[in-house]
Amino acid sequence: MADNFNVRLDEVKYYTPDACCKEQSWIGDYNRTYQAFLADPDGFWDGIARELDWFQPWDRVKEWNYPYARWFLNGKLNITHNCLDRHAHSQRRNKVALMWRGEDEGDEQIYTYRQLHQAVCRFANGLKRLGVGKGDRVCIYMPVVPEQVIAMLACARIGAIHSVVFGGFGVNALNQRIRGIEAKVVITADVTYRRGKAIPLKNIVEEAVVSAPSVERIVILRRDTDKPVELHPEMEVDYYDLTEGVDRECPAEPMDAEDPLFILYTSGTTGSPKGIVHTCGGYTVGTYYTTKYVFDVKDSDVYWCTADPGWITGHSYGVYGPLLNGATCLIAEATPDYPDPGTWWNLIEEYGVTIFYTAPTAIRMFMRVGEEWPNRCNLSSLRVLGSVGEPLNPEAFEWYYRTIGKDRCPIVDTWWQTETGMHMLTTMIGEPMRPGFVGKPIPGVVADVVDMEGNSCPPGTGGLLVVKEPWPSMMRTVWNDDERYRKYWNTIPGCYTAADLAVKDKDGYIMVIGRSDDLIVVAGHNIGTAEVESALVSHEAVAEAAVIGKPDAMKGNVIKAFVILKDGRQPGDKLKNDLVYHVRMTLGPIAIPSEIEFVQSLPKTRSGKIMRRVLKAQELGMDPGDISTLEE
Ligand code: 6R9
């Protein structure tokens, strides 16, 4: 827990960006904007919401009935009207909205705002043909292709609630999520391409829907036109056949600000993953605002967020936020080091990317392979660099700043979560940057580092990172499990607890240290210990399992599993491989342990809970802390 760990704060180092980037930025002066927000929080959000199109204005900005908030009460809007129609019916009509790049150079697709509008309307009409309507849940399990974005927007267009599942998840993870939301339709593709290989997705879906009776139809994007996969007509329909002969217009469904927009699953510390619910009004306002002000998006920008829309970063800053701002967005089905570690830098040069948003794990990988790769490319188009997903350590910050940003580009290290929907902490453009520290709450957010009683921690003393006031894009509930929602607000009275440990410096800059719970952040992806453990235990040879995160220079953390075998089962390398394979098949490649140790027993509390903290301390040669609850 948040024991007091003292961080050395005496080696203070700030980077001060060029003054003109502050003068020309949307945010202008951070302190002044923050004070204006504090003086009139509702007025602040009201002003931002007015920059968007609403079918009906709101009566009140917010209603706070702890821990439940409602925002923009009785306001009616549709996020896709704001992402598409607003631009397609203005001088941005022929502006490029979406550029997609596959692994091969020739694989490219480009949509203007007008074209994207039309593609979304057509697919939305296709979904209507299948009987999908407002409030129905649709699962999207696709690779990073334009049709993935189009499917999300088409759902939002007609008021269906989408739930995107990352294409790297396996059968069980997908099945659990489809059943959780009782999806009516699943949208998928025949294959995803990775490192030159076609990886089939359709068969995973077919297995995942077997025990999911809610699913009526599977829509399949057939990418491999040479060998089109066969469709089972009673259930399966081709993506493009569905839009044959449909109208190119599909009016955007007027949605109440508080209607759900999407559900996105995130790993829980115990039990099953949580379906985080975001709503139409607040999420639109929050992602529009942060994309505009944190990244400083202007009409001339070319924006690239490397996250897959299967994660919240891809939702908020790969799709919705940039389209709400009428930006030109690049998406790529590209692995950072395939065919070589120059791929991403080539894309930046080729497309003239100006705003680049990625994760520390990628930055550290590029650091390791050397700066000759980015140095071969002309990266002078870049003007803003972003980071998200895990702490950006000072070494990675400096490398990113010098080698990629050439000492010119501000770095916005953004702290936020699936649950928060939008950026919460960062160093706004123009403010001095402190490597290792994300920065301060953005205007619109009240956050602090506190002890278990909710008292503000003095500078240098670690505590829990909390948010003290509601914000528009906060999650509204956990799908079908409101109890778990209330937990976020009940741990520390009056505060939203993010389960991250943090420390502040004397200037109020916040350093995020890591999770205070049993989530393991591997390469920027949250993985619940519970999920990996239950996958291991579902193997016939395993009696019990416990997993921990082990610090890793590249991935932030890797997973180590401790496994007790059933009587009579022999440990060995073959079994280790079997277990890794088993986890890969059930949860997907992102959750596989990189180390497995066979043990005779596991440290447990008297109530039978595995003390992962003790395992971790042993593993890392640290003091395990209080072990008074440890069983004999
Ligand atoms: C957006 C996203 C959330 C968790 C969060 C924290 C970690 C995210 C961070 C960061 C340090 C940053 N995290 N951004 N840690 N610095 N800039 O990643 O959402 O997948 O829900 O993960 O990721 O631990 O609590 P999500």
From TrEMBL:
Residues 30-83 form the Acetyl-coenzyme A synthetase N-terminal domain. InterPro entries: Ac_CoA_lig, ACAS_N, AMP-bd_C, AMP-bd_C_sf, AMP-binding_CS, AMP-dep_synth/lig_dom, ANL_N_sf. Its EC number is 6.2.1.1. Residues 531-609 form the AMP-binding enzyme C-terminal domain. CDD domains: ACS. NCBIfam families: Ac_CoA_lig_AcsA, PRK00174.1. This is Acetate--CoA ligase.
